[in-house]
Amino acid sequence: MALLQISEPGGKPAKPAHRLAVGIDLGTTNSLVSASCGGKIEILPDDDGTYLLPSVVRYKADGEIVVGSEAKQSATEDPGNTIASVKRWLGKSQAEIAANDHAARYRFDPDREQHAPALVTAGGSKDPIQVSADILRSLVDRAEACLNGKLEGAVITVPAYFNDAQRQQTKDAAQLAGVKVLRLLNEPTAAAVAYGLDSQEQGTVVVFDLGGGTFDVSLLSLRQGVFEVLATGGDTALGGDDFDQLLADYLRERIDKQASDEASELVALHQYANQLKHGLGENDSVDIDFHGYQGSLSRAEFADICQPLVKRTINTCRRVLRDAGKTIEDIDNIVLVGGATRMPVIRDAVADYFGKPPLTDIDPDKAVAVGAGIQADVLIGNKSSDDFLLLDVNPLSLGIETMGELVEKIIPRNTTIPVAKAQEFTTFKDGQTAMSLHVVQGERELVSDCRSLARFDLRGIPPMVAGAAKIRVTFQVDADGLLSVIAEELSTGSKSEIQIKPSYGLDAGTIEQMLQASHEHASEDRDIRALREAQVEAQQIIDAIYAAIDADGELLEESEKATIEAAIAELQTAMQESKPIRIQELSEELNRLSGDFAARRMDLHIRSLQGESIDSVEPIGK
Amino acid sequence: MISTDQNFFQLFDLAAHFEIDGDALDVRYHELQNETHPDRFSSGTEQEKMRAVQLNSYLNEAYTTLKSPLQRAGYLLKLQDVEIDTVSQQDLGMDLLLEQMQLREKIAELPDDDSALPELETMKKDVLSKLQQQREKFAAGYSAGTIDVAKRIFHEMQFLHKLLSEIEDGEEHRLGY
Prior knowledge:
The structure holds 2 protein chains of 2 kinds.
Chain A: E1 21-25, E2 30-37, E3 40-43, E4 53-54, E5 56-59, E6 65-67, H1 69-73, E7 82-84, H2 94-98, E8 119-121, E9 124-126, H3 128-147, E10 153-158, H4 164-176, E11 181-186, H5 187-199, E12 203-210, E13 215-223, E14 226-235, H6 240-254, H7 263-282, E15 285-290, E16 293-298, H8 299-324, E17 333-337, H9 344-354, H10 367-379, E18 389-391, E19 398-402, E20 406-411, E21 419-425, E22 435-441, E23 451-458, E24 471-477, E25 483-489, E26 497-500, H11 508-522, H12 524-552, H13 558-576, H14 580-593, H15 595-609
Parallel strand pairs in A: 1-10, 10-11, 12-17, 14-18
Antiparallel strand pairs in A: 1-2, 2-3, 2-4, 5-6, 5-7, 8-9, 12-13, 13-14, 15-16, 19-20, 19-22, 21-24, 22-23, 24-25, 25-26
Helix pairs in contact in A: 3-4, 5-10, 6-7, 6-8, 8-9, 12-13, 12-14, 13-14
Chain B: H1 8-11, H2 22-36, H3 46-67, H4 69-79, H5 94-109, H6 117-143, H7 147-174
């Protein structure tokens, strides 16, 4: 006999249903998505069993959006409409993007400079936020198909060294893709989580993360489930792409230049350089055979070509050690993350600097996504968070502009987040009622050398003698590393408070508009059906009205008839132009215009049924 | 639950002295992080989340302040209502000012290549050992209640920190960083 199960009073309630959340590594070159499957974090494959989604999007003239390997393959045949490495452009101005060699094959949309610069493609103008959103959407679709359910949230990784603008735009892209962001997680921190939980290691660890387009170094202390970032540093414009570029430049000098100025040629050369680089991962030397040029390249020669880039990565390591107050002897292990750390030239340089070989037993492509998946599982509430906590830092100092265009630091880099710092300001003129604040991010002394985050005016300060007003400005950086500013006026005792978000991200209205546009686009089939339905319905209304005029046209004044006919003509135009919403509007308008007519006919027919003669009926209503 | 009304020492259950138990500070920090970190409230209400961000920001500020000997010294003085943001010449010994100027000039006159590195290394060790002495002096002055002495030593420590970071910048510059 089966026993009934009765839980203890006050005991734990039944386990809530598993909620679906994913970790997303939104990479420069490749992206991945991971989720908890049976208590273990797995990278989710596509239908073909492939894990890496190339971060490449092709926009076709018919509106089709192709994401991933198919788009990557079409890069040489359709370079102008195929966007790769878009992550490098998040948070950047048009001038900054144009300065990069990669941008040579694209055209900017002159009408779209306001929020984020947009590239002209056959499928319309696309800014980096939209392109990132299309990559995210593809990953979400994959996850929802794999997990067979709707996602409730995602942890998305960003380079630790991403600034406020780059973070905000990543978040905007997620919103545009319809994904709830549980947390923006720094990539090296994510990798440390994957590594630390796996190895149960305690101690001081350096994560060296060289991806396709970004570079981060983080120094962490791992202790009893607490992952504490002590310092981080990096370069958001340094990655495997740059090694390809240097090698492509080297090759280009040796190949007939006439042939290599076409966009498709540049892409082909870049891809060839990438192949050579990969070849050198396995062999000491590779043969070069490209467009008639033949030669060979050894690891040592490649190392020479890349020396400036390698040196930049090691310099960053040194700075991070200094910021953390640690020496090389304090470091227990070095973890390599990011596909570009497969290059022997990088492994050798890291081993040389730290005096010990880096760990290579974790998959450098997957560690970040796995760590993000673990954090997502905790934040959505599936996994107990008791044994696991991440403490991260802000990568760049936040400051404000002071007299002489100098920067006064408010929150220094490598401060544990969330963090809030308050600063008091006063007026310097009698009767002054407003003041301007300029918030910048960066390490340099001069405002012009830092990145401008926000400029805003505080107004409505009660007029007083100079120095009497007291304005407290609080700079708050949240756990995603995003800044908000709160200003309070203290002198009058009335605490007026405003909250300012930096302005380079999309404002809520723009996001809504873009969301709508993307929904319309994503549901193209549904739109076509809606159009067909509207057209059929409109035709039925028109047919019915013509039939009624044929039968009872004398019930209409000439002017009424003209109005109805004009409305019909307008509706027919809209039908030809395939505008479903306009067709619906005009159909309703036509229904309304012919309403009186229909009512009169109804009356007429009722009366005729009652036996009255048609001749005795007066037209009603004028 | 902790509150932002507590001062930094109260937050960590520590007596308000310059000498503190660094391990106890770390252990308590992690305990309080577990209680207040925003990740602990990811499924909470907006109000709970906001409160977590505020409390946790306060905790982080407190920890950073107490962890650094220089900032800890400054905070102790602030608790005694001592103004530490301004410093007058009388607050500092003339000897110290002269010594600082000489050391700065010495750094500036060093050759602009890696041949200067050994000299910089020597200077760095010297500054670090002086800092250690000043920390001991501050602890003694503060606990004896001679706050004006403590204030002077605090400002001297500020100078030494500035000098240390200049030496390190000089090293990085010469190493090509």
